[in-house]
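Exam prep: given the inputs below (a chain plus threonylcarbamoyladenylate), describe the expected output before reading on.
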Amino acid sequence: MDTKVVRIDESNKSEAPIREAGEIIRAGGLVAFPTETVYGLGGDALNPISSGKIYEAKGRPSDNPLIVHIADLEALEAIVKCVPETAKKLAAAFWPGPLTMILEKSDLVPKETTGGLDTVAVRMPSDAVALSFIRAAGGYVAAPSANRSGRPSPTRASYVAQDLDGRIEMILDGGDATLGLESTIVDLTVEPPAILRPGFITGEMLRQKLGRVDEDETLFSADSGQAPKAPGMKYRHYAPKGELTIVRGPAEEVTDFIGKELAEGRRNGKKTGVIATDETIDKYEADVPRSVGKRTDAAAAAKGLYRVLREFDDEGVELIYSESFDGEGISQAVMNRLLKAAGHRVINV
Ligand code: TXA
Ligand code: MG
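Solution:
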């Protein structure tokens, strides 16, 4: 199959490509599209055959449920059994935006889309291209991140093409994703509500609207010994091909330790990479040194992380060390993804 890539931007006022993308979805095909978090691999959420195709294109196990993307609140009512007060509050505060809610599904949503579950994940993205595309597609677009399973989520169209060229009908290229990390997932079918995946909408922001909100222990700790609650979180995700280790501790000791490890790796003929910050990047001698921005700018780290992980793969880096990004709010989302990418390999110095 030839994958058509169409660039959409402010100057391109023509709605023809978005209409065409919508028709592909209505006909049961697949289109990758930009959202403010990461690119999605979209299919008709109400068509079980489309969901099957998404799993196949992505190389993803079909017990891992998909997020249904909608463009207005009426669409939410149609796909869930009822809209609880908690969902109304969160929708008013954070939609459209980087928040996914888990709710009881209605009969309209096939089990193929929800990985066999009676619940459905729903998100209304804020990206303008995403919203027009969802409307053109009929209002319900099932979409996981548009990467092959096990690769970092794509933050630009060329990364989607790297993974999915020839496997899907079309890619809508809306430029770089503004946030760069996937949405926060909150389960509203349990009491109190629980965060299944941290993101830009932080626990603190959710608590301001709902009162108590639990955080799954497995999100941040390497060794809680518990099974994660979101089915997708049990799979090894976002893994670069090289061996990635996170180093945690006082700043100077971290740079010293990483510096020595990189030198040792290079002596052994390994191609090395480092994930650092603007403050420290010049202290390292790595084959592929990468800064994700100022240490205090967690949003920049969120935006840059997946790009850097892909660059290590493209450069064939074998040994990677990363500084750790401990802190509140968005830092937690960055650290959650970094821990997964590292297979929870952390050294405390
Ligand atoms: O920002 C995002 O959420 C992006 C963009 C494209 O919207 N999408 C995304 O989808 O990250 P995906 O498929 O890569 O991650 C969805 C996660 C998976 O871990 C999945 O297991 C979980 O959501 N999930 C989906 N439905 C669920 C359900 N009913 N109950 C619990 N977890 C669910
Ligand atoms: Mg994903």
